[in-house]
């Protein structure tokens, strides 16, 4: 699309300056208005960054030292083109005069919002940092992308009218030059770093949930299409490490997706996988990432040697930083997760900065590095689909992006692994499933306050021993009815309860049907199970004295004792940090 017409009135929008040259059949970068000659004749550069003011000459593509756009015929210049055409009489820093018959472009702030729509994404969190545009939309970048199947483990792709969940996986595979000293020797590429990136339906906030690689988890059976085209049903394992959901037994990223769903109750829309090379190339492309250390670090395992204070790191040094664990915190993988989150927050801030947003060279390098570094699912295995995803994510402000970690406890049976903290983890998962923000977003605070007021259950409650209820499974995990019954009877004293097995029909969410004269019983049961008022379904006629209420467990029921209504705030004392906060690694 040629956006020159719009540029005359509004200034230049770099997002739309890739135009088709009819003489060559290639896309070329044109950052100035058309002047009646083909952009193929453009051979000069202007040192000023893209912005709302006019340039005297077009720019060459920002891909290094005056390299041509990939796919374009290299070194082409029209007769008379080149540096010799530059107006040497114009004073340094002065503006070029507008072309005859044309109105001068209106001065306009090079606002971040427009720049966000221009720049290109790298990982899911990088997409949130900068978004994507038609900058990418041509064959060169599309050919860089590697895509593999979700094997039916995803939602089928993101949608504009609901929340978005992207699973970002970092593998420990030692592919590429200089990576022999990292990860496990001979690793097939396990799920070493795992972040479930949740972006709210209204796009005002996001949560990046780190899942520890050493978490004990159940890995389900995984129908998988292998690289050679063979389809295979890979058996699941019970009580294994989360990181074995990828690589082990030929498992692909789709199996990690299924494991995340099994763990959290959230089905990811997409996945993105990056290896060690991705970290090195992306941090180099952005010009380095700022980090802070609260002490000197000399880690022989990760090869990181940095003094106390602030540093800008990239490439090999950035990878060493992200691999460091023995020299920070308690020396565990959980400590490494914390510095990874600090690093990613800093990366987001760097990507939002004008130094990045106004640099064509940096943005070209990011686009090149990102598309080469990633393996994505087939639903976003096309540049245009990545662009659409980036456009959905680009508006999230770093102050409303929360990094947190699945709450865990040390495994008493194996000190090298961790297990879910069942007093806190279900609350975190519920907040993400129900799209509750971890940050104080004003709009959500008001909505939550109203919902709490509307859902408040008024009136007297019956004693637990007087509650009479039949429990059905209407779409919850197998065994849920018995699980709920045992908990009600043994933990809460609801002895007049019965397991009625499967419901006649499944329900979308857990519900309790009761008669008007059972309202006090319904309030008690709702209080015990953490049910909201919307889950209570009163009938119009009274019930008999011995008639039970009907509790039907839906897909939102994960475990007895976990509240069925989403909490309005995160559990106390969970590890978390906002992306706009600079934190020093300890």
Set down the secondary structure blueprint.
Elements: H1 4-10, E1 18-20, E2 27-29, H2 112-118, H3 124-130, H4 139-144, E3 146-148, E4 164-171, E5 191-199, E6 206-210, E7 216-219, E8 222-225, E9 231-234, E10 237-241, H5 253-264, E11 270-274, H6 276-285, E12 289-293, E13 297-299, E14 304-306, E15 309-313, H7 315-323, H8 333-352, H9 354-357, H10 360-373, E16 374-377, H11 383-393, E17 401-405, E18 408-410, E19 418-420, H12 425-433, H13 442-455, E20 468-473, H14 480-492, E21 496-502, E22 511-514, H15 519-529, E23 536-538, E24 549-553, E25 576-578
Parallel strand pairs: 3-16, 4-11, 6-17, 20-21, 20-24, 22-23
Antiparallel strand pairs: 1-2, 4-5, 5-6, 7-10, 8-9, 11-16, 12-15, 13-14, 17-25, 18-19, 22-24
What can you see in these coordinates?
With 586 residues, the protein is α/β, with parallel strands linked by helices. The chain is 26% helix and 19% strand. The protein is built from 15 helices and 25 strands. It has helices at residues 4-10, 112-118, 124-130, 139-144, 253-264, 276-285, 315-323, 333-352, 354-357, 360-373, 383-393, 425-433, 442-455, 480-492, 519-529; strands spanning 18-20, 27-29, 146-148, 164-171, 191-199, 206-210, 216-219, 222-225, 231-234, 237-241, 270-274, 289-293, 297-299, 304-306, 309-313, 374-377, 401-405, 408-410, 418-420, 468-473, 496-502, 511-514, 536-538, 549-553, 576-578. The strands form eight sheets. Strands 3-16-11-4-5-6-17-25 form an eight-stranded mixed sheet, sandwiched between helices. The protein has a five-stranded mixed sheet with strand order 21-20-24-22-23, with helices on one face. Strand 5 (191-199) and strand 6 form a beta hairpin. The radius of gyration is 28 Å and the shape is elongated. The two termini are 50 Å apart. Mean pLDDT is 76; it is low at 1-20, 25-137 and 453-457.
């Amino acid at each position: 699309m040629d956006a020159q017409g719009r540029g005359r009135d509004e200034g230049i929008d770099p997002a739309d300056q890739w135009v088709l040259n009819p003489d060559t059949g290639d896309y070329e970068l044109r950052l100035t208005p058309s002047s009646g000659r083909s952009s193929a004749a453009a051979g000069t550069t202007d040192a000023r960054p893209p912005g709302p003011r006019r340039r005297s000459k077009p720019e060459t593509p920002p891909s290094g030292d005056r390299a041509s756009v990939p796919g374009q015929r290299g070194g082409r210049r029209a007769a008379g083109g080149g540096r010799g055409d530059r107006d040497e009489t114009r004073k340094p820093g002065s503006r070029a005069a507008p072309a005859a018959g044309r109105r001068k472009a209106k001065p306009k702030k090079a606002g971040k919002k427009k720049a966000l729509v221009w720049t290109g994404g790298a990982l899911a969190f990088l997409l949130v940092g900068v978004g994507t545009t038609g900058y990418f939309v041509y064959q060169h970048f599309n050919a860089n992308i590697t895509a593999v199947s979700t094997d039916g483990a995803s939602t089928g792709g993101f949608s504009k009218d609901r929340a978005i969940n992207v699973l970002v996986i970092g593998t420990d595979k030692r592919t590429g030059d200089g990576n022999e000293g990292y990860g496990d020797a001979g690793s097939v590429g396990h799920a070493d770093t795992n972040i479930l990136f949740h972006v709210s339906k209204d796009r005002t906030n996001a949560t990046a949930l780190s899942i520890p690689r050493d978490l004990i988890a159940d890995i389900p059976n995984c129908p998988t299409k292998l690289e050679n085209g063979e389809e295979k049903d890979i058996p699941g394992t019970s009580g294994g490490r989360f990181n074995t959901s990828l690589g082990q037994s030929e498992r692909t990223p789709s199996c990690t997706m299924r494991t995340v769903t099994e763990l959290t109750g959230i089905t990811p829309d997409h996945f993105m996988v990056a290896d060690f090379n991705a970290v090195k190339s992306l941090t180099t492309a952005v010009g380095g990432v700022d980090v802070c250390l609260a002490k000197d670090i000399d880690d022989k395992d990760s090869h990181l040697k940095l003094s106390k204070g602030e540093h800008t790191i990239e490439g090999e040094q950035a990878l060493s930083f992200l691999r460091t664990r023995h020299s920070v915190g308690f020396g565990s993988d959980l400590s490494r997760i914390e510095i990874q989150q600090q690093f990613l927050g800093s990366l987001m801030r760097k990507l939002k900065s004008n130094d990045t947003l106004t640099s064509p060279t940096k943005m070209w390098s990011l686009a090149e590095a990102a598309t080469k570094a990633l393996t994505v699912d087939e639903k976003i295995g096309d540049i245009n689909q990545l662009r659409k995803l980036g456009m959905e994510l680009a508006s999230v402000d770093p102050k409303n992006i929360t990094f947190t970690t699945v709450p865990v406890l040390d495994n008493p049976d194996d000190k090298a692994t961790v297990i879910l903290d069942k007093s806190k983890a279900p609350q975190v998962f519920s907040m993400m499933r129900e799209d509750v923000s971890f940050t104080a977003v004003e709009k959500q605070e008001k909505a939550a306050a109203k919902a709490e007021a509307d859902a408040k259950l008024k009136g007297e409650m019956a004693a637990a021993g007087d509650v009479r209820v039949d429990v059905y499974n209407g779409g919850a995990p197998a065994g849920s009815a018995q699980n709920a019954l045992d908990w009600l009877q043994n933990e809460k004293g609801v002895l007049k309860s019965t397991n009625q097995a499967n419901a006649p029909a499944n329900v979308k969410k857990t519900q309790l049907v009761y008669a008007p004269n059972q309202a006090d019983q319904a309030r008690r049961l709702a209080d015990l199970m953490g049910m909201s008022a919307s889950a209570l379904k009163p009938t119009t006629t009274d019930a008999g004295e011995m008639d039970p209420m009907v509790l039907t467990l839906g897909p939102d029921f994960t475990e007895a004792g976990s509240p069925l209504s989403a909490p309005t705030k995160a559990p106390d004392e969970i590890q978390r940090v906002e992306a706009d906060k600079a934190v020093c690694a300890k």
